[in-house]
Amino acid sequence: MQNEAITPLVKEVYVLDVTLSNSAFATTADNESVFINSRIMEALKIQPGDKVKAYVVANYSDKQDRVPWRAVRCEVVGSVFADVETKVEVTEKDLGLRIIDALEEHGPLRTATLGRLLNSNSGEIGSLCLGLFAEGKIALADVFSEPSQKRSSHRVWAVNINEFDVDPFEEE
Question: Would you call 124 helix, strand, or coil by DSSP?
């Protein structure tokens, strides 16, 4: 059997989560997950919110159902945060403010739901939410579907921590 070279696909991804071991999970515009190993992360000093040109191959078969791609090479092309800071259009409301408005209007929402509601890429939404959380402007809850999980199944965002504890017996 011949050894055939695998040609990586090029995908633009947004880095969402960095693990304790400094590997990361990113997402494409089509909401596909991409794993980036710690060697690449450390060599390029990739941070949450970075936009990355990832050269990807199919992930290992035992992991493909959750994370279909793994990066074999990356190039940092920017940051969601840099785009927000240099945005000069005054006509459209800043996406970060739209996120906060949506959370105020609808209550706690998952990243994907915010993306659909705001007609935006969930990778960009997730990165912006991380930035808003780091600035203390919104609250974050990680939801796990089973105790053995190392990573949360969902991230839920709210304007403040009290939004996660709605008491049905409490009068407004």
Answer: helix
Nearest Cα neighbor of 28 from 140, 127, 141, 143 is: 127
Per residue in 40-78, pLDDT (tens digit) is 999 999 988 899 999 999 999 988 888 999 999 999 998
Q: What is the pLDDT of residues 71-94, one digit of tens each?
A: 999 999 988 776 554 444 443 468
Look up the pTM and report it. 0.51
**Tens digit of pLDDT for each residue in 119-148?**
888 888 888 898 888 888 999 998 888 888
CA quadruple 149, 154, 158, 164: dihedral sign: negative
Q: Please give the CATH architecture assigned to the domain spanning 9-80.
A: Beta Barrel (2.40)
Paired with 33 in beta bridges are 27
CB 68: neighbour CB atoms within 10 A? 15
* CATH class of segment(s) 87-164: mainly alpha
Between CA 38 and CA 168 the distance in angstroms is 45
Please give the structure tokens belonging to residue 73.
Answer: 């090479």
Domain range annotation of the chain: 9-80, 87-164
In angstroms, the Cα distances linking 64 to 17, 35, 59, 133 are: 18, 10, 5, 30
Sheet holding 109-110, edge to edge: 109-110, 154-158, 139-143
